[in-house]
Specification:
232 residues; mainly alpha; two-stranded antiparallel sheet; 10 helices; 6 strands; 10% strand; globular; disordered N terminus
């Protein structure tokens, strides 16, 4: 909590964004405006172009596993502001109870969950959900988070509130920017990385941020998704 408080103090108000370990310089404000403009334009075009895919996935979810089409979870955004992060539902209804029961009876699964907040063999995930996750199609609704200003196209992956402590003294880096639909972690192995490596990648992204690096990550995301490396 000390690191979190220090991080929030470093950020200040949402209008003063910390980049490269210090408050944003006036010359960076124009770049940040360009980043936001890029987010809006690309996300808006993507939503229109892939609207048929949205409809097909939604119908498939309802057909194969009746229940909510979307899953929303509270995540932490820039400056510590919390928002509802959207995904296509990939888990069975009542997944929280399934997870709790698994962690209670399986020490190996519990260790894996505590280390990475992920499970390589997750009984909560439906057959369709497994496909959506491997292809990253489950994250398409986050385009609306981008349009709303909760997220950016590129940035650290959005975390749930209790994960912030895992950033330790680097939490200020995460809180400095909008979390991203894709990012350095996604194109560097995703779940094959340890959580500490993920924190290091997020911090490195903020330290070295620039529009050029954002564009490079966006282009690298396409082959990373197609190869499905580290996705589960």
């Amino acid at each position: 909590m000390v690191a979190l408080s220090a991080g929030l103090q470093m950020i200040g108000t949402p209008e003063t964004v910390a980049i490269r370990g210090d408050r944003v310089r006036p010359s960076d404000c124009g770049l940040l405006a360009c980043k936001r403009l890029l987010d809006i334009v690309v996300a808006a075009i993507a939503v229109v172009v892939i609207a048929p895919a949205f409809a097909l996935i939604a119908l498939s979810i309802r057909w194969f596993d009746p229940g909510p089409i979307l899953f929303q979870q509270t995540r932490v955004g820039r400056g510590g502001r919390r928002f509802a992060c959207y995904k296509f539902r990939t888990m069975v209804v009542g997944s929280e109870a399934v997870l709790a029961e698994l962690l209670e009876r399986d020490p190996n699964a519990r260790s894996e969950w505590e280390a990475s907040r992920k499970l390589s063999r997750d009984p909560r995930i439906t057959a369709l959900g497994n496909f959506l996750r491997k292809t990253s199609l489950d994250e398409l609704p986050q385009l609306f988070n981008v349009l709303a200003g909760d997220m950016s196209l590129v940035g650290p992956r959005p975390v749930v509130p209790d994960e912030l402590t895992r950033y330790g003294d680097r939490v200020a880096y995460y809180l400095a920017v909008r979390p991203g639909l894709t990012g350095l972690w996604q194109v560097s192995g995703r779940n094959n990385c340890t959580y500490d490596e993920r924190v290091a990648l997020d911090s490195d992204y903020v330290e070295r941020w620039g529009l050029g690096s954002d564009l490079l990550i966006l282009f690298r995301t396409i082959p990373a998704v197609l190869k499905q490396h580290g996705s589960y």
